[in-house]
Each structure stands twice: as structure tokens, then as C-alpha cells.
Amino acid sequence: AITLRGTIMSITTKQIAELAKVSQSTVSRCLNNSPLVSERTKRKVLKIAREHGFQFNANARSLSTNKTNTIGFVFSQIYTKYGVDINFKSWLDEIMKNLEDRGYDVIISSFRSKTAKQYQNSIKKFITAKKVDGLVIMTPELDEETVEFLEKTNTPYVLSVFRPDSFASKEVDYIYVDQFKGGYLAAEHLIKLGHRKILSISADIEGDVFPLRTAGMKAAFRDYGIEFDEKLLIYGDTTFKSGKRVIQENFDLLNGVTAIFAQNDMMALGAISALQQRGIEVPRDMAVVGFDDIELCELFRPYLTSIQQPAPELASLTCERLVAQLKSKKGGTRQPVAIEPRLIVRESCGSAIV
Questions:
Q1: Are 291 and 348 spatial neighbours (Cβ–Cβ below 8 Å)?
Q2: 351 and 195 in contact (C-beta within 8 Å)?
Q3: Which helix (H) or strand (E) segment is 201 a member of?
Q4: Which of 133, 287, 305, 320 has minimal CB crowding within 10 Å?
């Protein structure tokens, strides 16, 4: 991997970004060969970097200061393969920008499969080669051996967005959005609007994000004394196409259903498209609520009511906790920090037009 800022050179990553007319975070990804950037953009950025003599000398900087001023990112590419990648990318952008604003460079390491060996190698390589001062880890799985290695080497790290099962009983800095609360808010909103028969579209992918949203939804039903029909819980894969397909293939289940809670926005938008093709108008005939509050919520009519995950707040807290560890080996009290999701009401639920 190549880091973002050189020590002996005539151009910075900020200047490369200006010349390439892209963000500094995009430059970071290009220099690290990230899968989140198109090959065309990578070629343009790397060409500018080469032409201006951009280079990096991490060893020299590390020997003189015992610090690299570099943070490593470790995440699974499984989340860039689905519709959730839009929201995941916003988290990544915000955290990278926050660290860059604090004067840190970034190295990205992503892996395609969820096998332990890939993220083990990424984390151990960062630490043993002294390439980074700390880590931001964004993956729902970590094996016990890697956990022990992180603790043994006294490496500053923060878990962001996901907490792997192996960390469930450990005191760690874990910054996340309360997915259970988000599912509860979505269901409660529809229930308060008078809906009793609600179809939900979830997703069966790695991690506990969608199970927690489902659990929150069911808790709202229980609290309001409504029985949830398990046959009305259907699974997509987080993409627009799967949201559309779920409605097309299960149209008979919509008999009597007055609302849909799609557990991410892309599936919600796909569901709305399928409903419209069948002549069912949203919100007149069917209320719809999504989850994530991505930018597309306000680009297509009806504007989508959604549960917002505050990316800037998540990024700020993640970086704040990591910097605290970097400044003090103990880093204060390690603890999970839950960020409250917010209900953003728009047209698709039928209760307001914003």
C-alpha cells in the first residue's frame, strides 16, 4: 500500500486532489488501489502523482519521530458489493476526512472474503512493519488470535460501525449507530400512523446490522400490542433490484398490507418502483419507510421517509477515541458508544411532505 502524504516531495495529496478535480479522500483511495474508485480515476490521479514526483518515505519519518502519523483502515469488500455500499462509503469518507483534517495520513486495506487469514494478514502487516500508529477496523468478524495480537502489541484501535462477536465481552472503543433503535423508530412511526399489517424487507448478509433492525421492529410491535406476521418478513440482498424483486415475487402477500418497512433505502426505492409498475401509488395506497437516509431519498418522488445514520457524528467520535489512544497509551476508559439514529419524515409514509 502507498500512503497519502510524502515527506520528500514537491506536491501534497491536497494539491493532487485539486489538479485531478477530486476529493482528497479519493486521492487516498487511488494511491491505495481501493476498489471504491473507478480505474479511470485511479489512472488520472496516479499520472498526476508521478508527473509531480510524489513519493513516500515512511521509514525515514518513523525513525526520526517514532511515529508515522498514519492510520490504517481495515474493512471487508463484502459491503461494497451490495446496495449498502452507498452508506458504507459515506462512513468511510467522513472518517477519512476527519483524520486528514487532524493531520493524519491513511492506508486502506480491504479484503474480498470473510476468511480470517485475509484480515489477520492486513492487521499484522500494518503493525509488524510499523506502517501505522493506529487502526480503524470496520468489519463484523475478527478471530480471537487477531484480537489477542492487537492487545499484546498495545496497538491503538477503534471498532467503527460493527463490533465482531469476539469483542462482545471486552472493553473496547466501539462506535456504532443503534440499529435496534432505528428499526424500532421505523415500525413505531408506521404504527402511530394507523398501520397494523406491515411487510418488512430485510437482508441476509454478514453481520448483525439487519437482525438488529428486525429485532427493533418486532419490539415496537410487541410494545403496541400488535402481533407480527413472520410471513411478512422477506429477505433481499440490499440492492435496488432485490427490493423490486421481493415485491414482484411476493405480490400476493400484499393483500391487506398498508405499509412497507424496507431495511435499507435501496431496497425501499426498488419496492416503490415495483409498486408503481403495478399501479399502487405511494403513499396514497401504500406507505413506505427506508433506512440509512442516503442522498437518493430526496432525488426521486415520492421523497423517501428514512432512518438517518449520522455519518459525521460517527466519524467524529471514531477519530476522537482513536486520537485519545494515540496521545495516551491507556487512552482513557474504553467503552462502546451508541449514536442515536433519527427518523426523517418525507412524503413516502403519507404523514408529511418535507
A1: no
A2: no
A3: strand 198-203
A4: 320
